[in-house]
Amino acid sequence: MDISAIAALAPVIPVLTIERAADAVPLARALLKGGLPVLEVTLRTATAMAALEAIAKEVPEAVVGAGTVLEAAQVEQIQRLGAKFAVSPGCTPALVTATRAAGLPFLPGVQTVSEAMVLAEQGYRVLKFFPADAAGGVAWLKAVGAPLAGLRFCPTGGIGADTTQAYLSLANVACVGGSWVAPRAAVDARDWSQIERLAAAASIYKRS
Ligand code: 3PG
Question: What's the chain's average pLDDT?
Fold first, then answer.
């Protein structure tokens, strides 16, 4: 599966920053049960790699990837642990080289038209728009729709239940990413049924 096919699986990709490795599997199961099969585990905690591996092994129906991938050296490791894709808040030539060498689908981040053009030159058609809300949100995506007609975006950063539909109604939005479907307080309380309900609500957004 390439990034376009992965993005087509669900309107929302939960962005998960997992502090306790034991939360990984029940969290992934709750999100999957709610209807969100694509999961991004950010590499920002000491347990991130273990969480990624646990989800890949124990919840094989999920399509789990690694987020906050900043260094080429992480690519081989996440792939070995079972990641199906990599996400970065930005992009570097080294990350392009490493993900291509590994054959790992990659969602690189952009914040400007020029960054998007550089990645389009290299063959990328689906890009993360980050930090979406702070960088112009729906208005930015609308404005680039015509000039960057061949590109689609996965906006992430500052998106919530209240703004998701506005993003997903745009023709150049493939899906959105966000942490609101797995709030820290609910994870800390191991309230998996609340997370399943949030995922169910997020899974029925309509895309254009
Ligand atoms: C992130 O990398 O933190 C994601 O963009 C999630 O952002 P959010 O917490 O604002 O949804």
Answer: 98
